[in-house]
Amino acid sequence: MQLFLDTTDVAILKDLAASGLVDGVTTNPTLIARSGRPMFDVIAEICELVEGPVSAEVAATDVAGMLAEGAKLAAIAPNVVVKVPLTREGLVATSEFAVQGISTNVTLCFSAAQALLAAKAGASYISPFIGRLDDHGAEGMDLISEIRAIYDNYDFDTEILAASIRSPAHVTAAALCGADCATIPPEVFTALFKHPLTERGLSQFLSDWAATGQSIL
Ligand code: E4P
């Protein structure tokens, strides 16, 4: 499973990418706004830090606008993935991007039917929003399972990118449901390393080791 970081915070990205475990990055207009920086600067900097896919989202809602913006975003770096909303216009643009060889991440997916259409349009990635579905009273993870089954039934290449992740448990569940990737906020990514029993066990081992008075080096 590929693990992406859902962030526009370059300092945090640098820190976590040093783990060697960050396979890509996703951004969205809210995260760009939160960074307080020009979008093109942020995306270019992220693309220098990460070799894997970096999603940059269009702001236009009409097909021509999405195609023009997508072309500009894709020109930033070869690893840019153009993110488009799951609307009828977004899927028309997705089909055209596929013809042009531009990778796409179709975002704001909340149903398996939407995911089916995105795959038929040739999306490189589909982003089902787990946390927002949970917030809405649904079982977000069911959507991952449904999309997995549909994509496997028809051998679609579109990768399932579990998004709107809120906890390590979401990451585990998405992996169990067969998501190809998950995009994870930095605080959740950091939490993935941790378990209280790991901390307790390490503390015990270190104090027992210190008591031996030995040194390995
Ligand atoms: C995914 O690409 C989105 O940027 C992100 O996962 C949305 O998460 P949120 O629901 O926490 O805003």
Automatic annotation (TrEMBL):
Q: Which organism is it from?
A: Phenylobacterium parvum
Compartment(s): Cytoplasm
What does the function comment of this entry state? Transaldolase is important for the balance of metabolites in the pentose-phosphate pathway.
This chain belongs to the protein called Probable transaldolase
Lineage top rank: taxon: Bacteria
**Molecular-function GO terms, alphabetical:** aldehyde-lyase activity; transaldolase activity
- Could you name the Gene Ontology cellular component terms for this entry? cytoplasm
Q: For this entry, list what GO says about its biological process.
A: carbohydrate metabolic process; ketone catabolic process; pentose-phosphate shunt
Q: Does the keyword Cytoplasm apply?
A: yes
